[in-house]
Write a structure and sequence with these properties.
Layout lengths: L12 E7 L2 H12 L11 E2 L2 E2 L4 H5 L2 E4 L11 H11 L4 H14 L15 H13 L5 E5 L7 H14 L4 E5 L3 H7 L2 E6 L2 E6 L1 H8 L3 E7 L5 H11 L4 E6 L2 E6 L7 H10 L1 H4 L1 E8 L2 H12 L23 E3 L11 E3 L3 H22 L1 H29 L3 E2 L9 E7 L3 H16 L3 E5 L3 H7 L2 H5 L2 E8 L2 E8 L6 H18 L8 E2 L6 H10 L1 H16 L4 H8 L2 H8 L3 H29 L10 H23 L6 H27 L8 H10 L4 H24 L9 H5 L12 H44 L1 H7 L7 H12 L2 H4 L3 E10 L5 E11 L4 E6 L5 H8 L7 E6 L2 E2 L4 H5 L2 E4 L11 H12 L6 H11 L15 H13 L5 E5 L7 H16 L3 E5 L3 H7 L2 E6 L2 E6 L1 H8 L3 E6 L6 H14 L5 E2 L7 E6 L5 H4 L14 E3 L2 H12 L7
Parallel strand pairs: 1-6, 1-7, 4-5, 5-6, 16-17, 16-18, 23-28, 23-29, 26-27, 27-28
Antiparallel strand pairs: 2-3, 7-8, 9-11, 9-12, 10-11, 13-14, 15-20, 18-19, 21-22, 21-24, 24-25, 29-30, 31-33, 31-34, 32-33
Helix pairs in contact: 3-4, 8-12, 9-10, 13-14, 13-23, 13-35, 14-20, 14-23, 15-18, 19-27, 20-25, 20-27, 21-25, 23-24, 24-27, 24-29, 25-27, 27-29, 35-36, 40-43
């Protein structure tokens, strides 16, 4: 931002900031004004406080609505507002009242207890706006507050902002020019960080406007040349703006407004002669002002885009040529060839394989985590087992000290010198070991049994009994204590040794296990085959489950659907994925063998065993990876899918092994042999079971053979002659042959199942929806069907189109797109009739607009048209191919730009364009030329080599649109293509779409921008409650529903009532037709609605009223107002959509 100064001292102000690029608006609003970053130079003040020093004071009266909704997922709407009330210091008594007031104003009372994640996009924007306004914020910053809202919701929000702007200063940034026009008391336009202009909308239109637009609806016999001559006779500098379909428009400079009256009078008088069905006029829009300011600031005016290379009857799967433009390296007449057959297959495979490789390369941490998960878990578990073996080999001293402090009961009978000496030595020995000697009177056994302390603390007990000429020493030990026999004997031996050799003598008793011999190794390893198998199976669960991540992401984000629409073959899509994942799996298995060698698990890595182990692992991968692909269809979030598949793989292996052990050894089971065999065979369907059992049995067989070779004289019951010649690959019991065959077969079966799912899912959905659900619904809901799906009370244009489609044969209609009685019912409780019996034809070279309020059925209809959802009844034909019976052929004919950007964030713009060029089959030498053309067409060259996740929303929309347009589809579907684009990029897109349409392509577009519909659509329909409410060209709908002209004047806020009344008298005397002053005017505006076409010639003028700084311009009713008119026209009972 350079040398821009805007100073606001007005308490009631809405200032709109427009810019060429989102980055400048964000920088101005967030970085400077909010003090996130200090400015390079200059100062920003809010209410007199410096943003670089006094942000604590500023934030007390500051409200912010960011472009992206920053909401807490698990807080309700009311909890959000309560949280911010506390932060803004609203007294507790007033919080509930403030929250209820704001929720009521924004019509969110019913959602007060709903979690934010359950709200629609429009409701989330409303909540973000409330958060900015709540608490009486004096300065409010709104960054694109109505982004993503439909026109009606947007206008409701405008009304609310007008209501709540009192005593506030609001700074609003927006990409919608009509929003700036309506809300902005002053509008500032920035280009490349520099403030270009600032003023009211009327002031900017006068300074930068091009004048007026006159738009005419042509009759079939319209004489365009004669109309052009008539207009130039009156206004020589008038220019032809557009002549598309049934519409014709000219630009009339504002310097010639004094000639408009005569021109319009002549047009009205000669209307029938010239073939004009109707005409209307409007003043310069803010969109044109913005573009003109931008072009004046930027010497690089958008160059004329060359007409695309497309041929009218070209088949995208045929080998043909077309003209294209390479902006840098080739001439205008360079040709591009499309591949077919094997060349196309190999090129598509290359594109898909590179896509997978880039995913792994760019997400190397994720791939590394998968591999390390496998290797780390196995290494840890095997090393823990080795460590426990090492602990068992430690020398252990046998004494009472290893048990802690114990009680040693002693029973004595007699008092000879030897007895006294023995007791003395015992006392000294126990005292040194911190043990307690307890002398017992009476029977020692009774004492041990009756004394509770002895249960836990008595390990050793002694009895010294004198009999005649001998002394009997008896030692007792607690058999529950480990090593107690040897410890008790050591105590007795020590006191005897001391009595013989003196008090310093002692005997140390220790236990040290013998070192393992080879024989013991074989026995140990043989028993550990199952342990190693379980460890490997657990590590594999971590690795194999990761192969679902990209497949889930592509399906959920509709990237896969776009690839299928673009023409990728299902086999190539899945086989390329399998091959790349198999390569990752092979590398992981090689590293696993290294780990097994390091951990000395020789059974799997000795001699040629490593080849057998690798074969086992590869067959497991061949069967497990397709299973992960198939199970990925169950999940709609990649992280959730990974976690759940890890658990599935692990527990399916563990439980199947437990079941196998139970059945193999008949542990407490009463199951017949037939049932047992059936269950064991059913377990073979789990790849993890096959892997674990194969590894376990392989280990057992190996160790049996090795044992026989080492034993010179085996036991008679061991038949080593048979064991030595065992074939490990046999299909017999306890051999691995059946597991190998099962995994080999299972891989083919699961891969085939994926294709069956892909190819039959559409047919299955059609059958269930149309023949089962709809059949049952028709049987029980006849009244609803007859009422909702008939053409009663239709608009005449809609009825005419429907009868034409139903009555005429398909060949006679000759339509590129034919929609025949299309209906969509969501079979819920209760059932929802989203689309009701829509019939429509769209011809070559036509751009059809599909408009509707939220919930009108527009999205459902659009999703049926592109094959995302099935129709409940009716059908759609693209170039004669039915979407019900031939979905694959239909997909090859269309291009699709979805509403949410279906892009792969880890790729660059150029990489993803190259990928789609290869999918379409552009010959390899021409791929870069082809991609460069489209990048330059939408001015994406400077962003082409950046990662897509760094793109702004507008650039992502441009990239998605480019993907839809490239490849020469017959029909192009664009779902809100210009959302988030700045006006320059939007007009660039409009120009490109218009030129593609002129080549004969049919285009179907949905949009929330009425200007976009007027600029692109030759026909459009407005949907209300699942039906077309009206149908026709934009000008036809204006003439039919919106024949209203608006006169708007801005007066000074302090204008006294007498002068205001003088002005109204002047208006009533000047114009012969009565105007209706609006009661909903925005601040400081007087607006008059004139509802007569005949008044047009008399009211186009400019008048500089002495108490107004702005002239009084005339404009026709905006098409956004027409958008809401058919609902009133249809529902006479004042029932609003």
């Amino acid at each position: 931002m350079s040398n821009s100064r805007i100073e606001y001292k007005v308490e009631v102000l809405v200032n709109s900031t427009l810019s060429y690029s989102n980055e400048y608006k964000t920088f101005v609003c967030l970085c400077l004004i909010l003090g996130l970053y200090p400015p390079t130079s200059g100062k920003a003040y809010i209410n007199g406080y410096d943003t670089s020093k006094d942000m604590v004071q500023i934030r007390k009266s500051l409200g912010l609505c960011p472009q992206q909704d920053l909401l807490f997922t698990y807080l309700t709407v009311s909890e959000h507002l309560y949280f911010y009330c506390v932060i803004k210091g609203i007294p507790q008594k007033l919080r509930s009242m403030e929250i209820n007031h704001m929720l009521s104003a924004f019509n969110l009372l019913e959602k007060r207890d709903a979690f934010s994640q359950s709200l629609s996009g429009g409701m989330k924007r409303k909540l973000s706006i409330i958060i900015a306004l709540i608490g009486g914020s004096k300065v409010v910053i709104l960054d694109e507050p109505t982004s993503g809202m439909d026109p009606v919701s947007r206008r409701v929000t405008w009304d609310l902002l007008q209501q709540y702007k009192q005593d506030r200063t609001i700074l609003l940034t927006t990409q919608y020019m009509d929003e700036a026009d309506v809300l902005g008391d002053r509008i500032a336009i920035m280009v490349r960080g520099t403030l270009q202009c600032c003023g009211s909308s009327i002031f900017l239109k006068q300074i930068y406007g091009v004048g007026y637009h006159i738009v005419m609806v042509k009759e079939p016999h319209c004489d365009v040349e004669e109309i052009s001559k008539l207009i130039h006779n009156h206004i020589p500098v008038a220019t032809l703006e557009n002549s598309v379909g049934s519409e014709l428009s000219f630009i009339l400079p504002k310097e010639y407004t004094h000639r408009f009256e005569i021109l319009f009078t002549d047009l009205e008088e000669r209307q029938k002669e010239l073939g004009i069905a109707s005409f209307g006029a409007s003043i310069t829009t803010m969109e044109e002002v913005f573009l003109r300011v931008n072009n004046m600031a930027d010497s690089r005016v958008v160059s004329h885009i060359q007409k695309p290379f497309l041929h009218e009857n070209q088949n995208v799967n045929a080998s043909t040529y077309f003209e294209t433009v390479d902006c840098s390296t080739t001439t205008e007449n360079s040709t591009i060839r499309f591949n077919t057959g094997c060349s196309l297959y190999s090129q598509q495979f290359r594109a898909m394989f590179i896509k997978r490789a880039l995913f792994s390369w760019r997400n190397w941490k994720l791939v590394l985590l998968q591999i390390l998960g496998l290797l780390g878990v196995i290494t840890f578990l095997l090393k823990v087992d080795d460590f426990s073996k090492e602990n068992d080999e430690i020398t252990r001293n046998m004494n009472l000290g290893q048990y802690g402090q114990t009680i040693v009961p002693l029973s004595i009978s007699g008092n000879s010198n030897l007895t006294v000496n023995l007791v003395k030595h015992l006392e000294n020995m126990l005292r040194s070991e911190n043990q307690i000697l307890r002398k017992v009177q009476g029977d020692l056994l009774n004492y041990l049994m009756e004394n509770k302390d002895c249960i836990r603390l008595c390990i050793v007990a002694l009895s010294i009994e004198e009999k005649a000429n001998e002394i009997v020493l008896t030692v007792l030990f607690n058999n529950e204590a480990y090593h107690s026999p040897s410890v008790s004997l050591a105590v007795l031996d020590n006191i005897l040794f001391m009595s013989l050799s003196g008090p310093d003598a002692s005997i140390t008793v220790s236990n040290k296990p013998q070192p393992y011999h080879d024989f013991n190794d074989f026995v140990e390893n043989a028993s550990n085959g199952g342990f190693v198998a379980v460890n490997v199976h657990f590590g594999m669960a971590l690795l194999i489950s990761g192969f679902c991540l990209l497949t889930v992401t592509e399906r959920v984000t509709k990237v896969k659907h776009i690839q299928l629409v673009t023409g990728i073959y299902v086999f190539i899509y899945w086989f390329s994925a399998l091959l790349w994942d198999f390569i990752i799996f092979f590398i992981s298995c090689c590293l696993l063998l290294v780990i097994l060698k390091y951990c000395k698990v020789d059974v799997f890595v000795m001699d040629d065993n490593s080849l057998d182990t690798m074969m086992l692992l590869m067959l497991y991968g061949w069967s497990a990876i397709p299973l992960m692909y198939l199970m990925s269809f169950l999940y709609s979030e990649s992280t959730t899918a990974y976690i759940k598949l890890v658990l599935f793989n692990y527990f399916s292996g563990i439980f199947s092994l437990l079941i196998d052990i139970t059945l193999q050894y008949n542990l407490e089971t009463k199951i017949s042999n037939g049932t047992r065999t059936f269950i064991l065979n059913a377990l073979l369907l789990f790849p993890n079971y096959n892997l674990a059992k194969a590894l376990e049995d392989y280990s057992n067989i190996y160790h049996e053979k090795a044992l026989c070779y080492r034993l010179e004289h085996p036991a008679p019951y061991v038949d080593c002659s048979k064991i030595k010649i065992k074939n490990v690959y046999s299909l017999k019991e306890n051999m691995i042959g059946k597991y190998l065959i099962t995994m080999s077969t299972l891989g083919f079966f699961l891969f085939l199942l994926i294709f069956i799912w892909e190819f039959t899912l559409w047919k299955l959905k059609i059958f269930i929806s149309q023949h089962i659900c709809f059949g049952i619904y028709k049987k029980f809901k006849k009244n609803i069907i007859s009422k909702e799906l008939t053409g009663e009370s239709e608009d005449e244009d809609v009825e005419k189109e429907r009868k034409r489609v139903v009555e005429l044969p398909q060949e006679e209609l000759n339509a590129t797109v034919l929609i025949k009685e299309l209906t969509k019912i969501y079979f819920k409780c209760p059932a929802i009739l989203a689309v009701k019996n829509i019939s429509l034809t769209i011809q070559k070279g036509e751009c059809f607009g599909l408009l509707g309020f939220n919930g009108a059925g527009k999205s459902s209809l659009f999703q049926m048209l592109v094959g995302e959802k099935t129709a409940t009844s009716g059908d759609l034909f693209i170039e004669g191919f039915s979407i019900t019976n031939n979905i694959l052929k239909v997909r090859s004919k269309i291009g699709y730009c979805p509403q949410s950007d279906a892009l792969l964030d880890y790729m660059t713009g150029r990489e993803i364009m190259i990928m789609y060029a290869r999918i379409w089959g552009v010959s390899e030498p021409h791929v870069n030329v082809y991609v460069n053309y489209w990048l330059s067409s939408l001015r994406l060259e400077s962003h082409a080599d950046k990662f897509i996740y760094t793109y702004s929303g507008g650039n992502k929309r441009r990239l998605s649109t480019a993907i839809a347009l490239m490849g020469n589809p017959s029909v192009i579907f664009l779902d809100e293509p210009s959302t988030g684009m700045d006006p320059v990029a939007r007009h660039l897109l409009w120009k490109l779409v218009t030129e593609i349409r002129e080549t004969g392509k049919a285009i179907i577009i949905t949009s929330h921008s009425m200007e976009e519909c007027e600029a692109l659509c030759t026909r459009l329909a407005i949907m209300v409650k699942g039906k077309f409410m009206c149908l026709g060209s934009p000008q036809h709908l204006k003439n039919k529903f919106g024949q209203v002209y608006i006169l708007k004047a801005k007066v000074k806020p302090d204008l006294d009532e007498d002068k205001l009344e003088d002005f109204k008298i002047f208006i009533s005397k000047t114009f012969p037709v009565r105007g209706f002053p609006s009661e909903t005017d925005f601040d400081n505006y007087i607006k008059y609605d004139y509802r007569s076409h005949k008044v047009l010639a008399a009211i186009v003028f400019e008048y500089d009223f002495k108490n107004s700084n702005d002239p009084l311009p005339l404009q026709m009713l905006p098409f956004s107002d027409v958008f809401s008119t058919p609902d009133d026209y249809k529902d006479t009972d004042n029932k609003r959509q």
